[in-house]
Each structure stands twice: as C-alpha cells, then as structure tokens.
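Before the break, one more example. Copy the sequence into your notebook; we will annotate it together after we see the structure.
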Amino acid sequence: MYLWIPITLGATGLQVARNAVQRGLLAEAGPWGATLVRFLFGLPFAAAFLGVALWLTGPTRLNASPAFVLACAVGGLTQMIATAAMLVSMRRSSFALGTVFQQSSIPLAGLMALAFGEYLHPVAWGGLGLVTLGLVVLGWPRRLAGEKIGSAAILGLVAGAGFAVSSNAFRQAALQLDRPAPIVAALGTLLVVQAMQSAALLVWLGVTDRGSLRAIAARWRESLPAGFFGAAASGLWFSAFALSPAGPVRAVGVAEMPIAALAGRRLFAERLALWQMLMLVLIAVGVGMAALG
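Here is what the structure looks like once it is written out:
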C-alpha cells in the first residue's frame, strides 16, 4: 500500500544526480540542449526498464487510448518547459535554491488534484501553506553573489507549475494504460513520453540551435549518465504516480532538498545562509504536514 514512499525516496536521489550532470552541460548545450540530454540519452534505458518489467511480470497488453496519448503529450510538454526553467533557475541562483524553487510543484499539485477528485485534509492544507510561505521568503528578490535571484524564483515557480501539471498528467496516463499492472503501465508511459520529448526537442533544436546539437554530440560520454539517471529517476517517479495521487508523492519528494544542498556544497562549492537553512526547515515541516495529513 505504501510502496510508493520508498520508490519516491529513490527517485529523489537519482533526480539530484541527474540535475547535477545536466547543470554541467548547461553552458555549452544551453537549457533546451541540456533538457534534450535527459530524454534522448534516457530513451534506451527507458526501453530497457520496460523490457525487464515485462520479462518479470509476463506478457501484458497495454491499451493506448486517445486519452492516454493526450495525457502523455500534455505531461511531456509541461515537463520539458519545467526542466528548462529549473536549469536556468539553478544557474541564476544556486543548485540547492533552484531545487527549492521548483518545489512549488507541491502545493500546486495539491490544488490541481482537486480537478481529479483528490481532496486533502485541513492539516495537509496547513502544511502546503507553510511550504508556500517558505518559498515566497526564499524567492523574494535580493542579491546573492552579486546577482538578483528574483528572476530565478520566477523561473522556479514556472518549473513548479510545469511539474505539477506533468505529475498529474503522467498519473492519468498510467491509469489509462493498464490499471492491473501499475509498474508496467508507468514504465510504458515513460517510454512513450520520452520518445515524444526527444523527437520534439530534436526538431526544435535542429531548426533553432544546431550548435546545441553539436555540443551534445561532442559530449555524449558525459550525457550518458544524465540519460541513465534521468530514466531511472523518471521510472521511479512514474511508478509512484501510478500508485498514489501526485500531491503526496511530490510531498515525500521534499527529501530532494537536503540532498541537493549537500550536492551543491560538494560539487559547486555553494553555501546556504542561516536564514535560507531556516526556510528549508520550515518547508520541510510543511511538507511533512502535507504528507501526514
């Protein structure tokens, strides 16, 4: 019943690793090129994950309805926009704060879940209020390392909104595909979504920025880890969404924040001020209330 909780925790760790690799590619490939790396190089891994799942569970008929295709398309588009916005937000603030800003997907996912008849307890709404307060304080324009971070906060909110939409879309797609086998349905959804995203971004960059494609091709060895971590993280996220509503899954995903803070300190020599750490604690408390509520 609660299998989605350890699955989500596993996804958060892999997601931090993927974001770190993507950020390293941002300068040469640009935000859309770094976003493409996640999907294109993750595609063979997504296919392998689905193949293993089918081998373990036996033959499964996956019924792809028009509603499934539409949900995949909506989720894929909003996830691409959210990923690019998140990467630029990280570049304009810090790795850890960029991660925090996009956590606005938690309260937004809770609000969007109402459209699908998923209602939250008042304690959960109180937790979402604390999360929102912490995000507003963190995102208030001020100087950090000589740069204003207000635009980073706005981009983080765009990323959060995109991830909130995509989370609910991916859940609905998996439910449409195959209810009796949620993990297989989740991995099937992942493969279709990443194929759509890879094709769309290849066409877009082929028309608008071929330099990014050349940069990706030149750094294919560095791109493979991003693809693997991205496909593995997304596979776990999609599986969690297939097993639970998006709001609680995003809430448990707050474990990403302390992991990202440690990664930012070790990999990019970034440090958080005391007030920023206090806001992280406030957000963590709020997310805990949202999850328990």
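Residues 4-292 form one domain. The chain has one domain: 4-292. Try to locate both features in your own notes.
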